[in-house]
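>> received
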Amino acid sequence: MSEITRRDFINGTLVAAGTSVLPIGAIGQATMASLDPLYYPPARTGLRGSHPGSNDHAHNRAWTGRSDWGRTNILTETYDLVVVGGGLSGLAAAYFYQQKHGTSKKILILDNHDDFGGHAKRNEHTIDGVTRISYGGSQSIVEPKHADQIVLSLLQDIGVDLSRFETAYDTGFFKRHDLGGATYFNEEVFGEDKVVQHPYCNYPNYVEGLQGAKLSNEEAAQQAPLSDKGKKQLLRVLNGGLHSLQVAEAELHNYIETHSYYDYLQNTLGVDDPGVLRMARHSGLDWGSGGTDVMSIAAAKSCGALGFAPVAVYDEDNPYIHHFPDGNAGVARALVKKLIPNVAKGSNAEELVLAKFDYAELDKSSSAVRLRLNSTVVNVEHAGNPNSSGDVVVNYIKDNKSYQVSAKGVVMACYNMIVPHIVAGLPEKQSAALKLQGKSPLQYTTVALRNWRAMKELGIGLAMSPGNMHQAVLMDFPVSMGGYEYTKSPDEPCVIQMISCPYGKIGTPRPEQFRDARYRMLSLQFEDYEQEIRRHLSGMFPSGLFEFDKDVAGISVNRWAHGYTIGGPGDSTRIGRQPFGRITIANCDSAPSADAKTAMMMAHRAVDELG
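>> returned
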């Protein structure tokens, strides 16, 4: 066998130069009518999430007002319900409709992505014959004991046993391996590559069992690669807090709700060092859905930003342990199995963890529920008066061809800001309210490693990385269930998570920052991300323990241009989600909130509104 002299990433999977075998991600996307037997999106690597092509038609509709899609194929298919969006809210809407009207009702779910689940995305990496499962978006069922009985009943019906996570999640994993919260400072921003055993913020506290800082505030400030002035300012922030404010206790609550965190840093604590301010800006991540420069003091405190003492993230009754190995994709798969029984073998959610879903079963005419992927809805319109009993006509684009189906009712379980662009005749007040909603961009990158000896050697369970695109790097959650075993030894393959919350120009309003960051995110090619990840990991890990081309087996960059829900001002959310004839609106956006329980509750409300 000849020596391999060059290795490269093709769509996120490391392969030998000259090989004739391509990863599944390189296979052309097939239509449901002629589905390739290898069609299995969870195993695809490279650019995932808002993958290339998934948003093209929606953007053409919203940005340019495109309405001519060529000749439309008017299908003979008619449905009781069409659901726009195959995420948790859309899947739950189909479930609730069946519960209310019977399992014989015909339902079509349309989604623009190549996989179902929305932000609940499953990532699979095969590393030297070993499959590791991870998530590319929605992580967990958050605080399930606070869930409405409607949600609890749904979870029970689809086979999700919440008590099972108490043993499936190994809370002792991080302690056994002495893995804690740290910070990686990169040379490009901070002048040297350095790991300090202190996270400087509360973000790592959401990982159950993760060990805390190994250094005191004084030691951590001294070890930070900052100027002497910067080190003093950093220590001042770490030892600061609300007691630093000269505000009467009776006025404190209102004050922190209405005053800027950055003003607090700069004016109250006298911080002007750019390194300290950068650490502060990048200390909230997806908890705060944006940089801390646009947060109030109260919001920064709530998300555990730099300078606020670590606190327990969730109460004792709701530990942050309710993760399937693939995050909330485990819930999405259980819902799909309930709706389309022949898609996989397994009688409950745990038995589905290792099940290979047969995507050819998703869109069969013999099924009461059909799930059609790679299908972007571009127009939804009442065939007659919205107040009459006529059908709703739905136009969508699949494989660059236009199709039309009709239904008695439609649930828009998609990104709410797109609704006014595709629902014809929507009242102007409602349309305007929907356009005020928003979402922060978010990126979850999963990296397959042949071993995690470097993480073990440095004692890193989670590393804040304020100088990098990905502001946090962490070991995946230690969950074993359904026959799947998470990595136990540093010599075994694993998946690490790299989380990025891209920000726009500092000092600009939040919506403008989101828009700029979103455009920049989507403009990058996989090669750009690969180079960034290469530099990040190679700078953080010692060269004797880590070699990128040898140790990295695959990369999935899950880009969510429209990630966490950000509600509009005033009463705009309530106005925007109002039913319009036989069209109702679901999704987390209509709450607004950003968790699985809310997605399901909004689906229940939308189905009830259809009558």
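>> Residues 1-7, 16-32 have pLDDT under 50 and may be disordered.
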